[in-house]
Amino acid sequence: MVILDLVERIGTVADGATVTVPLDPADGALVAAWCARTGNELVDVVDGVATVRRGRGPDPFAELSPWQLPGTRLWMYTNFDCNLACDYCCVRSSPHARRRALGADRVRRLATEAAAAGVSELILTGGEPLLLPDIDDLVAACTAALPTTLLTNGMLFRGRRLDALRRMDPARLALQISLDSPEPEPHDRHRGRGTWQRAVDGIRLARAEGFRVRVAATLPPEQLHTLEPFHAFLDGLGIAREDQVIRPLARRGVAESGLELTVESLIPEVTVTAEGVYWHPVSADHDDQLVTRELFPLEAAIEEVRRRFAADRRRADAAAQWFPCA
Amino acid sequence: MSKPLIVGAVAYTPNVVNIWEGMRGYFADGPAPMDFVLFSNYGSLVDALLDGTLDIAWNTNLAWVRTVGRTQGACRALAMRDTDAVFQTLFVARPGSGLSGLADLKGRRLALGSRDSAQAAILPVHYLGEAGLGADEVELVRINSDVGKHGDTGRSELDALRAVLDDRADAAALGINTWEAIGREELMPGAFEVFWESPTYSHCNFTALPRLSEERTRPWVERLFAMDWDNPEHRPILEMEGLRQWVPPRLAGYDSLFEAVRTQGISDRW
Description:
- Chain A is α/β, with parallel strands linked by helices.
- Chain A has 2 domains: about 1-55, no CATH class; about 65-295, Aldolase class I (TIM Barrel, Alpha-Beta Barrel), CATH 3.20.20.
- Chain A has 9 helices and 12 strands.
- The longest helix of chain A is centred in the last third of the chain and has 25 residues, at about 300-320.
- Chain A is elongated.
- Chain A starts with a helix and ends with a helix.
- By secondary structure, chain B is α/β, with parallel strands linked by helices.
- Chain B has 2 domains: about 5-85 and about 200-265, D-Maltodextrin-Binding Protein, domain 2 (3-Layer(aba) Sandwich); about 90-195, Periplasmic binding protein-like II (D-Maltodextrin-Binding Protein, domain 2).
- Chain B has helices at about 15-30, 40-50, 60-70, 120-130, 155-165, 175-180, 215-225, 235-240, 255-265, and strands at about 5-10, 35-40, 55-60, 75-80, 90-95, 110, 140, 170-175, 195, 205-210, 245.
- A 6-stranded mixed beta sheet of chain B has the order 2-1-3-10-4-11, with helices on both faces. Chain B has a 5-stranded mixed beta sheet with strand order 7-6-8-5-9.
- In chain B, strand 1, helix 1 and strand 2 (about 35-40) form a beta-alpha-beta unit.
- In chain B, helix 2 packs parallel to helix 3 and helix 4 (about 120-130) packs across helix 9.
- Chain B is globular.
- The chains are: A alpha/beta, B alpha/beta.
- The interface of A and B includes residues 4, 15 and 17 of A.
């Protein structure tokens, strides 16, 4: 009888250690109930074997900073088409990519549900969001609910799109503009000729319009040690140091090299596209990190991300128990 | 800082190290620091208390009875868990077994735990005698595992339950802690039911000898009683040790075991 086996096995190990017992699938609920009742933790059930930890184990969220807690920020991919075709784009955006727009109705509902679910910041990205004719409506729906950041390449602040930008609320909206280098060549090599100058012009214009501007750079991991000239250049543009975001290139999308990112190695950032809810914005075009196709209720999707993150961390802890070094 | 009190206990599971590390850490911040020594069996623990290696022993009820006997009653109990003051032995059987009281065990098979377990062997035999059942009127199926640890591991009680499930016994005697550990009747409805509960009796206590002065024990006991279930730093230690509150010892709760040990001629060394 599995409960007798569990009591006996758990009794032979210290708090925090795990034991395994063979488990008839019909007894799964019984083992879960026993764990809940006795203050032990069912780590997982795989191939007819249950792994149980004595005691409750460490809180997988305790080691995260408050801003890293899954569900603190909500990313929304407003669209996937883009005026650029960067050679490392993690979601394969380009002028030829299908738009796959989230749409104003869903953005509005997501913003409202996010605020109710405890999200503290919304982040709109793409694709290039400013390609959308109703981008100012989408932004207004978001800023009405929560502080919002809009990611853009900064190259489209002209004509009706500049008018749209001017209708956005600088008190509730920050802009995050991509710039990969303090000089044109490295940026242009990945993003297209002339794009560096237009991005720098866009940064200056956005600041002149009263927006807080963050600059995000994507660098190959081997270049991450040569950052000081870049910081000095951004200082000269008036970008605060805390708004200078420099991150390594990820091997996702059309990128041929870069950091390998997996569900296990990424702290999740709940990300919504027209197709579903994803683990992280860097993987929003990849089904290996699809969490659910159901966007609503948003709170359930956030809870699922948290549940998977906690389960992954606990499994990793259990694996560490299995392979002691001494 | 005063010299630490040396507390002895039996390591019946690796988790005992966690428990006593937690206790040592708790007492390190107070006026009566302590350290601990672990033994593999209660016979050695009691010997170490008597020969002065230890200041205080964390004794089972049988170890307490033995210490009283070997000190002619000069030892004293300092404290126990709230759960120690209301310990019980339960007799369980498969539902529909036709057992509704101890008298029904006449001519039936009763699985007992380790012979040095007060809750699963010594007191159950005592209760059978009190119910008027002679030594040859119940077939005792004895499962002697982990002898020396006074039933602390619970393994023999689990084996007694397996004996009932496998129809090698009609009933089993076990401590209420094991009954709680398997979730009482509630997790496995239809597997076991309790057909007789013993009166409450006392289980473990902290035992000291007269050579350890009240001046030395008083601040330690006061600090012990100050452990607070609602304090998140104290709670893990209390949970691991299986109590919510430390309480003064209930000595009357040992009367039945003194009587059982005497009438059954239980070995001095267990």
